[in-house]
Amino acid sequence: MISLFLVFLKIGFFAFGGGYGALSLIQDEIVYVNQWLDLQTFIDLVSVSQMTPGPIAINSATFIGYQLHGVGGAILATAGVLLPGILWVSLLLKLLSLVSKKYETSRIFEALRVGIIALIIAAALRIGMDAITGIFTSVFFSVTFLVMLRYKPPVFWVIIGTGMIGVIVELISNGLLF
Amino acid sequence: MTASRLFVVFAKVSAATIGGGYAMIPVIRDFLVKRYKVMSDEEFMNMIIQAQAVPGVIAINAATIVGKSIAGIRGATCSVLGSILPPFLIILVIAMFFTDLVHLPLVAGFLKGARVGVTVVLSNLAFQLLKKNARNIPHILIVALGSVAIVWLNITSLWVLLIASGCVFAVDMRKRRSE
Q1: Would the N or C end of chain A have less CB density within 10 A of its end CB?
Q2: Distance of CA B136 to the CA centre of its chain
Q3: In chain A, where are the structural domains located?
């Protein structure tokens, strides 16, 4: 169980670039280096982690930890994967507090605020290619997008609302409603 | 904004948002910038950039930075706990009782619909940020190429962030010099 914690600590420490980067590290460590799970089980766990709410890397850590050592394993794996990030962040904040008043920093952040849009579009594309698969979902996407632009509803309720519509559609298409 | 309020906001966001860390950004932004108005859009995006710049899970890094700036160490702790607790419990329930939960029509329907919702919300955020921050055609081209590089060339997003922003910086420098 200690080695499980250490492995996830290591993953969290080197996981540059967020969830997807972390996933390939997790796969290496869990499936190939330590051989705690076979590839198929790993893929199944990750696909559930992608479907449930929350950060994918954290979800996979919780799930894998539970599979290997029960609730204790889940807690340790989750703690392991998130602690290094908090450490890195504190370090970065210390560093930034030394320079952030400078004029160049604001120019650099101005450029970074444009660059980060590429990452947000990439995330939209990745989820979108998975979510929008036919005419119905395309129309659903467009209508929701227009509603968002026009009425600016709270973003939280857009996600809950589209989820609810998904439930209704699923029930109708399974013949469970009407 | 109190630390306990932060806990509630981050718990709500992480309980509802399917699709990983990036999907949580527009929802957190909506709460903190639009609704509670505890920071400006620029401040929020700067914090997301910082969260992306260091290793770790983006959502957790962001929760730490945002929480700390609003309510100190207590704020950071509450934000992080808020963003891990709901997913942690959901995964535990699934792992303990039914691995097939995600295939029940009720749950599967919600996940399918909400994924479209998350796509809308992320596209909307990208659109708003482009309108606000991308000041000319080269900027838009750089952003487009960057996102293609991540999705289809599988280039690590940190590299894309650094290279794309470097290009934007260079374009701005040239522009400033010619003015």
Answers
A1: C
A2: 24
A3: 2-99, 103-173
Contacts of A84 in chain B (CB under 8 A): 55-56
Confirm or reject contact between A6 and chain B (CB < 8 A): no
- Cβ–Cβ below 8 Å for B116 and A162: yes
Q: What is the pLDDT of residues B111-139, one digit of tens each?
A: 889 999 999 999 999 999 999 888 899 99
> Which residues have C-beta within 8 Å of that of residue B75, sequence separation ≥ 6?
B1, B3, B6, B67, B68, B69
**Torsion over CA of B16, B18, B22 and B23, rounded to 10 degrees?**
-60
Degrees, nearest 5: CA angle B142-A150-B108: 80
Model confidence, pTM: 0.86
| B74-B79-B82 Cα angle (round to 5) | 120
pLDDT of residue B94: 87
Asked if A21's CB is within 8 angstroms of B92's CB, the reply is no
